[in-house]
Amino acid sequence: MYVRRLSLVDFRSYPRVELALDPGTTLLIGPNGAGKTNVVEAIDFLASLRSHRVATDAPLVRHGAEQAVVRGEVVRDGRELLVEIEICPGRANRARLGRSPVSRPREVLGALRTVLFAPEDLALVKGEPGERRRFLDDLLVARSPRFAGVRADYDRVLKQRNALLKTAGAARRSGRSGDLRTLDAWDGHLIRHGAELLAGRLELVESLRPLVDKSYGAVAAQGASTVTIDYRASLPDPPGGMERATDRDTLAAALGTELIRLRSAEVDRGVSLVGPHRDDLVLSLGPLPARGFASHGEAWSYALALRLASYDLLRADGGEPVLLLDDVFAELDSGRRSRLAELVGGAEQLVVTAAVPDDVPPALSGVRYDVTGGGVRHG
Description:
Blueprint (H helix, E strand, L loop, with lengths): L1 E10 L2 E7 L3 E6 L6 H13 L19 E9 L2 E9 L6 E4 L2 E2 L12 E4 L5 H4 L2 H15 L2 H28 L9 H37 L7 E6 L15 H22 L10 E6 L2 E2 H4 L2 H22 L4 E5 L7 H11 L4 E6 L12 E6 L2 E4 L1
Parallel strand pairs: 3-13, 3-14, 8-12, 12-13
Antiparallel strand pairs: 1-2, 1-4, 4-5, 5-6, 6-7, 9-10, 10-11, 14-15
């Protein structure tokens, strides 16, 4: 799988860009702030409908423009497919697949698959649990696009349920009885969608665990610590441990029991206290939690290992993803640079950004583009 052509209209800093790409390695070279990251962000957006840099779509549209367009010609198994996203802040985005409009943008998910490693990924190791939950959910969607609907349904139910709990809590504090007649119905929706999302995450962690340890050993220095990943749920562990309880009915029953137990506390606090939105992916470095004990180099290696494991997992599913490395090599010592170059050099399509050519190991020579504030041109 690879992107043969990328077209941007009013995306980020670019009024218009047409970029021809080939299989193998493409280098985007230019000073910081020139727009290199905007290009890889656009490719990743075609695959995920999300930005790795911002939470909303508005910053993706060039200042002064009303909308942006990201269009990619994707080649998979010798067949070409056009994927187009129209980004419309304040309104629903629109999408086309093979030049035909689709009813919802998420219907294009799966047409292109990417794995992006960027400086922001250090937050996977050092940041809050929400960063790691997003990592799991984005990978779930990349493997099985139906989880985009599961995640959206869960988020919608959680928002409605929290609003009801907040209202009921305010009424209780003022001495009135809150109206909780609809809470049972929202509980049922939360249980159904939550159990599905939780089961998907647990199965994903089981598949990722050996790949993460293998990738960390390949990137880090010889003799580095082993790493483990574990899923920490807001539910009490069932017999045999949470990560063995991937049966949806078992998880739904556990969620329902915990919601009943915590109902009074949830009303008091006005927020849902149990469910996938409160879970975490625990990253360990040897016997210690990576978040508090990993050095800067170890944290970078761990973050890389999570992305490389994702790449291996998607590749094993069929349809090798496009690999995007954004300003990665500048943060690595020479040993890690060489080992990473060896690991990714055989990718069907690899797009690398760097401020200066010397940051990129010689083993990753390829087609070079120079990126300036005005555009992208062959180097």
